[in-house]
Each structure stands twice: as structure tokens, then as C-alpha cells.
Specification:
Blueprint (H helix, E strand, L loop, with lengths): L1 E5 L2 E14 H5 L4 H4 L10 E12 L4 E4 L9 H7 L5 H7 L9 E3 L5 H4 L3 E4 L2 E4 L5 E5 H9 L14 H6 L2 E4 L3 E4 L2 E5 L8 E7 L2 E5 L22 H15 L5 E3 L8 E6 L5 E5 L1
This protein binds zinc ion.
Length: about 280
């Protein structure tokens, strides 16, 4: 568990554990001879991937960004990806009970980002965070409902449909402010409607950039995951992000980095993007 302050906000990184992805999927068109210098693959070509959430205490509200894989994966997916299911115990270790969470924000609705939104109680799906208002992008829900051949497996409706039906999930249409100092901004590429969560406090900015830059090994503009539906848009969105984040020294929070939940992204003297630890 790592903790940092940003003005009056307290940020705590908590994890749902480590799962494993195919290295080729993770690094897209980048040859293995290049990416294996940064990340070691096992004999099945799998690389470790973190499931990082962040809890933000504003003084008035307690906000959970992202909810990992959860514990409802179908058997077949559990075999492929694993299901560490550590978020609730890690939240407890950091001093947070499910009832403490006032707001949950999902960057997008892939199964590894919103899994703990809900849990099974008997045969019914109930909200994991009973008092929370959940936020996601309306376009992301609509895409998930289409169940397209390419990415249907990524969308498990039990993670969001019950919350939408009960009115507990608010669907956003683009950029929005959630509470003072905390807003969301859509960065297309990974999906059309993926949103980053931007925190501003005490003259500083932090951004949960989610799958736009999933780990500190993905800082280079062209190191784009094979999962991304619109890789050219990912590159443009990264440019747009770096234009602000580098000169303004934003703290970048990485969703899938197994080692560092956040860092400052800088350009070195050769113009290469590097992560400097916070
Ligand atoms: Zn995703």
C-alpha cells in the first residue's frame, strides 16, 4: 500500500492482486526482442499485470477509482487470466470498509476494471459498495451491450447492468466534474469512451490514466497494447496527455503496473519518456 497527498486529498493505492497477460497482447506491434528488455515473460509468454485501484479521501467524500477483476469471473476466464480477488482485503488493510466508499469511478467497463463493482450473494448480484454512487461513460455501456465478436469477452454485464437498473450507476456523456477537484476526461484509443480520472488539489494534478498508458513500460507513444480498438487514436490521445502532464508535472497513476502505482512522466535529454518515482 502506498499513500501520497495532493493538496487536501489523500491518495491510497490498493491492489486487487496480480494477473497475467500474454506479452504479445500487452505490447501490440512491438517485437518481443524489444519489450523483453523491460518485462520478463514466463515460459508461456505471460507477463505480470497489476490491478491498481486508488482511494481518494477529499475530506468530505471517499472515492474509489477502479475495482479490479473481482470474484465473479466465469471458470474459463479464471483459467486464462487468474482471479486474485485481493481488493477487499487490501482495502481493509488500508482502513477502508465497503460502506466507507461514497463514490466509485470506472475508467471503462472491461472485466479487469470494474469486477468488484458487484458481488454475488447467493444467486443475486449486489453492489459491493452499498452506499456508493457509481460513475461510468454511457458510450462504454452501449458498446458493451453490443457484444461484438472482437471484444464481447471483455464485457461482463453483471458488473454494471444491475447498478444501472437500480439507479446506483450514473452514466456520463463525455467529460464531467464528479466532485470539486475530481473530474473525468475521455481519451479515445483503448476503447472509444475510456475516461481518465483527474485530481486537482493544492496546485498539483494527478491523473489515473487507465489503459491509455497501462504501465510505466508503455510510455513510448507507439508501445500500444494489441487490445486497443483504435491504436492510432491511442497515440493521438497520449500526445494530448503528455502535452499537459509533462510540463505541468502531473502524477500519472498506472492501472496495470505490477510494481509502481504512480510516477511522474518526464522527457530525458534524448527526448525519451521516462518515469520518475514519486
Ligand atoms: Zn481495458
Amino acid at each position: 500500500m502506498k499513500r501520497i497527498t495532493l493538496g487536501n486529498f489523500e491518495l491510497t493505492a490498493v491492489s486487487d492482486g496480480i494477473y497475467h497477460l500474454d506479452g504479445g497482447n500487452f505490447f501490440g506491434v512491438i517485437p518481443k526482442t524489444l519489450w523483453e528488455k523491460k518485462v520478463k515473460a514466463d515460459e508461456k509468454n505471460l507477463v505480470p499485470s497489476g490491478l491498481n485501484s486508488v482511494v481518494v479521501r477529499t475530506g468530505e467524500k471517499t472515492i474509489l477509482i477502479e475495482t479490479g477483476i473481482g470474484n465473479k469471473l466465469p471458470e474459463k476466464m479464471r483459467k486464462i487470466y487468474g482471479q486474485p480477488a485481493k481488493l477487499l482485503e487490501n482495502l481493509a488493510a488500508a482502513g477502508f470498509a465497503p460502506e466507507d466508499i461514497d463514490i466509485v469511478i470506472n475508467s471503462h467497463l472491461h472485466f479487469d476494471h470494474c469486477g468488484w463493482n458487484t458481488v454475488l450473494r447467493g444467486s443475486t448480484v449486489v453492489p459491493t459498495f452499498p452506499k456508493a454512487t457509481y460513475y461510468a461513460q454511457e458510450g462504454e455501456v452501449a458498446h458493451g451491450h453490443r457484444q461484438l465478436e472482437r471484444d464481447a469477452i471483455s464485457y461482463i454485464s453483471a458488473n454494471y447492468d444491475p447498478l444501472i437498473e437500480s439507479g446506483q450507476m450514473t452514466l456520463l456523456k463525455g467529460d464531467a466534474e464528479i466532485v470539486p477537484g475530481i473530474s473525468v476526461k475521455v481519451f479515445p484509443g483503448h476503447t472509444r469512451h475510456m475516461q481518465a480520472i483527474i485530481l486537482r488539489g493544492g496546485g498539483q494534478t494527478a491523473c489515473y490514466i487507465s489503459d491509455l498508458i497501462p504501465t510505466s513500460a508503455h510510455l513510448d507513444l507507439t508501445w500500444v497494447m494489441a487490445f486497443d480498438l483504435f491504436p492510432l487514436d491511442t497515440i493521438e490521445s497520449r500526445k494530448r496527455y503528455y502535452e499537459k502532464a509533462i510540463p505541468e508535472k502531473w502524477l500519472t497513476m498506472f492501472t496495470h503496473d505490477p510494481h509502481i502505482p504512480w510516477a511522474y512522466v518526464e522527457k530525458d535529454e534524448k527526448g525519451k519518456m521516462v518515469a520518475r518515482s514519486a
